[in-house]
Amino acid sequence: MVENKTGASGNIAAEFVARSGADGYTIYIAAFPHATNRYLYASLGYDPVADFAPVTLIGLYPLVMVVPNTSPAHSVKEFIAYAKTNKLSYASSGNGTSLHLAGELFKRQAGALSRSGTGL
Question: CA of 17: how far to CAs of 12, 31, 82, 97, in Å?
Answer without folding.
Answer: 9, 14, 45, 20
